[in-house]
Design a protein that fits this description.
This protein is mainly alpha-helical and 148 residues long. The protein is built from 6 helices and no strands. The longest helix is centred in the last third of the chain and has 37 residues.
């Protein structure tokens, strides 16, 4: 693998993972602060905090699974059952984020909310389909390994 791209990707995933944890923890404070500039946020601090904290947890879990997959890529062993499981989990987490975000439609309807919902539905579907592709690849690899 390209050295610079590998290092960049690893650093980016690590940065996103740890910053995601920190931001998720501070969501209520961030929403309260932003409420000084936007009355919608000021009026809905508890509801938005719950939705964003839960979405943040699922987003961090997606990045956690990506980091595990990336480790297998670094080890030059991509086609393993663990990656199938990780992709499947990422799909489920994406669907949960889409579901949680859909609750925002009851608070405040914006085009951005609809776009986020669609993006996470597509990401969830993509992850689920990719997990099936990887599952077949792992099966073929294991069968091939047994033949040799």
């Amino acid at each position: 693998m390209n050295g610079k791209l590998t290092i960049f990707t690893k650093v980016l995933l690590d940065f996103l993972y740890y910053t995601g944890i920190i931001i998720t923890v501070f969501v209520p404070f961030i929403i309260s602060f932003y409420g000084n500039y936007n009355t919608y946020f000021a009026d809905n601090v508890p509801q938005l905090s719950i939705l964003f904290i839960l979405s943040g947890i699922f987003a961090v879990l997606i990045i956690y699974e990506l980091r595990k997959i990336f480790q297998s890529v670094l080890a030059d062993d991509c086609f393993i059952r663990q990656n199938v499981t990780s992709l499947n989990k990422m799909g489920t987490y994406s669907f949960f984020i889409a579901l949680l975000t859909s609750f925002r439609l009851f608070l405040y309807l914006t085009p951005a909310v609809i776009v986020v919902i669609l993006v996470f539905i597509i990401a969830g579907l993509f992850s689920k389909v990719l997990s099936r592709v990887f599952d077949k690849a792992v099966t073929y690899k294991l069968e091939n390994d047994l033949t040799i």
